[in-house]
Amino acid sequence: MPRSVNAVASRARRKKVLKETRGAFLGRNNVWTVAKNSYEKGLQYAYRDRKTKKRNFRALWITRINAGVRQYDMSYSEFMGKLAKKGIALNRKALADLAMNNPEAFEAVVNAVK
After folding, report:
1. Is residue 12 one of the residues assigned to a domain?
2. What digits encode the pLDDT tens for the residues 4-48?
C-alpha cells in the first residue's frame, strides 16, 4: 500500500510561512529552509521586543516627568514619593502626558503635592 502524505496541509503550511516572509532580502523570502528560519527568528524578536517596549516606554515617561518636575525645584523620586503620600493615583503615563501637553494641569498636580 502506498504511503499517505497530506500534501495539501504541508503546502498550506509552507505557503503561510512564505507569505509572512514576503519582502525579505535574497533567499529569506523564497527559499523554504532559509525563510522558515527567518520567520521563526522574527517571531522570537517580536516576543522579546513586546516586553522591551513596555520597559522603554516606562523609562521615557520617567524622563519626561523628571524634566517637568525639575522646573519646580523637585526631583522625580521626591515628587513620586509625595504623590503616593498624598494619595494621588495618577500613573506615570498620565503624568508624562500632562507634563508634555498640558503644563498648567501638571503645575496644579505639583502644587497639590508640595
Report:
1. yes
2. 889 999 999 999 999 999 999 999 999 999 999 999 999 999 999
The total number of structural domains that make up the chain: 1
Closest CA to 82 of 52, 40, 111: 111
Supply the pLDDT for residue 55: 97
Calpha distance 57→60 (Å, rounded): 5
**Within a domain: residue 41?**
yes
Q: Is residue 22 part of a domain?
A: yes
- CA 81/CA 106 separation, integer angstroms: 16
Please tell me whether residue 15 adopts helix, strand or coil conformation.
helix
| Grid cell at residue 85 | 503620600
Amino acid 2: pLDDT: 81
Domain range enclosing 30? 8-113
Angle between helices 32-70 and 76-86 (to 10 degrees): 80
Is the pTM of the predicted complex or chain greater than 0.85? no
Give the containing element (helix H, strand E) for 10: helix 7-20
